Amino acid sequence: MFKKILGTGAARAVNVLTQLATLIMGTKFLGAAEWGKAFIAQTDITFLLIGIELIAGSGLVYFTPRKKTATLMKISYGWIAFVMMVYFLLFNILHFFPNFFHTIVPEGYATLVLIMIFVYSLHEFNLNHFLGKEKVSTYNWLFIIQILTQVAIMAVLIFVLDIRTAKALLYSQLSGYTLATLIGWILLFPNLRQESHDPLKDSFKEMLHYGAFLQLSTLVSTLNKRLSLYLLRTNCTESQIGVYASGTQVTEGVNIVGQSIGLVAFSALSNTENKNRASQLTLRFMKVSILLTFTALLVICLLPTSFFEWIFSGEFSDIRTVILLMAPGIVFFSAHTILANYFSGTGKPKYNLYSSLIGLIVTLIAAFILIPALGIRGAAITTSLTYTALFVYQWVVFHKHTGRRLIQLIPNQEDWEWVKAEIRGFCGKSI
User: Fold this and answer.
1) Cβ distance 257 to 296 under 8 Å?
2) Phi-psi category of residue 316: left, alpha or beta, with phi > 0 → left and psi -120 to 50 → alpha
3) Residues contacting residue 290 through CB under 8 Å, at least 6 positions apart
């Protein structure tokens, strides 16, 4: 377990370093306005991926131990093709309403957005397959290949080809997705045996039912972010959005802790039927996630404004304020990530949907009050309030189902013994 967490954490650490390099290149050489445009396009991609992930998303992690790979591939690839055709037709219709369309998708980026959605969907299928099989190291290597390719290509686009627009980021991401997808296929296809597949119709219904709750939750969560972005576009310039996007990316870097532990938890919980073990692992994962996230945030929050101006340029002087205001919410979000994986991994994704709906209500109230009054600072406060609400609801449900109490989040001697045992197993010697 520790080896998987450490490996995933190392992969996410590499991701943070490459994202930091990407962030520095983007802010210094593209500028705040183009960086804001890239953030808008990325949000579009995230939003539209939900339609595909209804069937071919993270729910595959849950079904991979329970269904044959050939069955999951046929259903997922067919669904990806269907949804992409729907998006293609939708984009062509919206072209007749350019003023509306370009408030959603930046002008000149529609085709690129569609291509990125398609390629990422194929890449995500491979990732979820290996995670569901508990091949966490393979998952991590594909992830590392993707992000290292991305940062290398972005450097070439900026410094060699002199592309200084938001497309520099998006082209580099597309390159990373493409290479990782090809390597994933090389690893996946030889393992596909000539096997009888599960009934496609019944499997599709199961995946749709499970994925509906999972992706409705993701849809609502994305709406939380998208709503704030719409209000920011109304009340702020693209440059200010670029500053907010940068602050968000820095805090997302801290989230590698919860994401790394959460991925391992999701994989482990999807492969166990022991409810007591599932709740115990969830508590322990949560303790580690909260502690490490808080420590990382404390270090970042102590850095002076001049440091961020030196790293990102003077245009980004407000980034520290955004980070400070988001920091409390990020700690709660690290715990929420573990709980969300608990509910998904134990076949109860509906509670993630309900928590997201509560978060949306908080976002609606806070965003419409705070963003017009405080701009990007209001958006940061809104994010913190939303993340806090997500955790509070999920903990109440977790407590109701497992009987676990809030005081049990305090680390104890048993937790330390567990950590030592995991480290001994990893090192192969006494400590």
Assistant:
1) yes
2) alpha
3) 331, 334, 335, 409
Total Cβ atoms within 10 A of residue 280: 16
Return the residue matching tokens 């909260």: 290
Torsion, CA 206, CA 130, CA 197, CA 210, rounded to 10:
0
pLDDT digits (tens, 9 = 90+) for 200-212: 777 777 777 766 6
In 3D, which of 104, 121, 135, 66 has the Cα closest to residue 229?
Answer: 104
DSSP state of 66: T
Please tell me the distance from the alpha carbon of residue 252 to that of residue 331, in angstroms, as a whole number.
11
For the chain, report the end-to-end CA distance as a whole number of angstroms: 17
Please name the residues in contact with 63: beta carbons below 8 A apart, sequence gap of 6 or more. Answer: 72, 132, 203, 206, 207, 210
pLDDT tens string 33-90:
888 788 888 888 888 888 887 777 776 777 777 778 788 888 889 999 999 999 999 9
| Domain edges within the chain | 2-427
| Alpha carbon separation from 303 to 42, 170, 247, 300, 397 (Å, rounded) | 28, 30, 13, 5, 37
Nearest by Cα to 178 from 217, 142, 218, 213: 142
Q: Can you give the three-state secondary structure of 347-401, one letter per residue?
A: CCCHHHHHHHHHHHHHHHHHHHHHHHHHCHHHHHHHHHHHHHHHHHHHHHHHHHH
Element (H, E) at 6: helix 2-29
Q: How far apart are CA 267 and CA 137, in angstroms?
A: 12
> For 224-257, what is each residue's pLDDT tens digit?
666 776 677 777 777 777 788 778 878 777 776 6
Asked if residues 242 and 33 have their Cβ atoms less than 8 Å apart, the reply is yes
Tell me the pLDDT tens digit for each residue of 318-339.
Answer: 888 989 999 999 999 888 888 8
| pLDDT score at 431 | 42
Cβ 336 vs Cβ 398: under 8 Å: no
Amino acid found at 93: I
Q: Is the pLDDT of residue 282 over 90?
A: no
Q: Say how far residue 423 (Cα) sits from the centre of its chain.
A: 28
Tell me the C-alpha distance between 427 and 431, whole Å. 9
Let me know: does 27 contact 96? Beta carbons within 8 Å.
no
Distance CA(337)–CA(355), nearest Å, equals: 12
- Report d(CA 1, CA 267) in Å as an integer: 11
φ/ψ of 108, rounded to 5, equals 90, 5
Rounded distance between C-alpha atoms, residue 143 and residue 181, angstroms: 10
Q: What are the residues whose beta carbons fall under 8 Å from the beta carbon of 170, sequence distance 6 or more?
A: 38, 41, 42, 109, 112, 116
